[in-house]
Amino acid sequence: MSDHVLVINAGSSSLKYSLIHAGSGEAAADGLIERIGESESHQKHRGPDGETESSDPIASHEDALRAALDAFEKHGPSLDDLELAAVGHRVVHGGSKFSAPVLIDDALVAEVTELVPLAPLHNPANLEGIKVARRLFPDLPQVAVFDTAFHQTLPPHAYTYAVPAEWLEEHGIRRYGFHGTSHSFVAEQAAQRLNRELADVNLIVLHLGNGCSASAVQGGRSVETSMGMTPLEGLVMGTRSGDLDPAIHGHLARELGWSIDEIDKALNAKSGLKGLAGENDFRELSRRRDAGDEKAQLAFDVYCHRIKKYVGAYYAVLGTVDAIVFTAGVGQHSADVRSAALQGLERLGIRLDPVRNADPAEDGVVSTGDSDVAVLVIPTNEEWEIARQAVALVDQREE
Ligand code: AMP
């Protein structure tokens, strides 16, 4: 059997897939189907022949996966020739139950279904992807990799909210944390770049993409993270507010007569950079900021200030920090964000090298040679991590 895994990330109206070699991380193909169920869908497939696109209507997730399989057949690579080892599924919420990847069977589907109230926007779509893939690949092992799993090592004092104790016991209300696959992948890569054992290093990981989250990783274990019961808490994001006074919800309901759903939507889809400057794409926001746009500047300042607050807080949680790691679209590409977020922290032993930061070299080190805390830029690769975890689980089962 080969070590190729078809990694599937199903959203409410989209299906993203990658064909990854678990050993090397090389993507033999990937693709995205968007606007499922709308009159015009959009399909993109990148394989050995380059990229192909189409806009035929695709009615359901099942049709989307069938369209992806057609694309593999027409444009390659041939899934039959590659003999897939497994299908790996990104599942957003694993609750308190899942701290590791799990082989999917009917019982697992039922358990993920029970978690839907904790992630009403994400888990139903992930489940749809699982059901469809099980129908189309009945003989392949299918593995669920949870976004929350890596953060299951948080100690009780970090995951417990100061609310009536029965809320946790009866309703599962606690911090779970997300982006765990990315934080875990990047932490391991950081230890390698530092030439240290993961068990011996303390890291602050900053995943800054459309969604943003920070984590404190002590000896390879997540001990604090900024996202909470849902992916709304913490850093400022593209369209999500991150932290805010919880009394604002009541105020909006009482003063403006907003429903819970309206408030939820405003905080998840109309806030963050988009709420502040009308723009959630960081590249466009940067262009506007460079041109002197005041709203874009304020959005940038709020965004970076929040990151700095978390760096300070997680420094205190960890006691000593070996490296701060920036990853995901903004973290990897915005020298300005790295510089503004870490400015003035020299007394904490954090010294950014402006030349390295402007154009990070292959090793990703952007701190000065004498900085006590290394600052690293490391590309994340959640699909590879899902493929690795899926193959490791399948191999373990076969031993
Ligand atoms: P991700 O969720 O990791 O794909 O990150 C998406 C975010 O990264 C978007 O806000 C992009 O605008 C931003 N991004 C991607 N490339 C760049 C770049 N070169 N400079 C600044 N931001 C970028």
Automatic annotation (TrEMBL):
Q: What class of enzyme is it?
A: transferase
> By what name is this protein known?
Acetate kinase
Positions with a binding annotation for Mg(2+): N9, E382
Q: Which sites bind substrate?
A: R90
Q: Which residues form the active site?
A: D147 (proton donor/acceptor)
Family according to the record: Belongs to the acetokinase family.
Subunit record text = Homodimer.
Q: Which organism is it from?
A: Kribbella lupini
Keyword terms: ATP-binding, Cytoplasm, Kinase, Magnesium, Metal-binding, Nucleotide-binding, Transferase
Report which gene this protein is encoded by: ackA
Gene Ontology molecular function: any one? kinase activity
Primary subcellular site in the record, as a coarse category: cytoplasm
Its EC number is: 2.7.2.1
Query: What pathway is this protein a component of?
Result: Metabolic intermediate biosynthesis; acetyl-CoA biosynthesis; acetyl-CoA from acetate: step 1/2
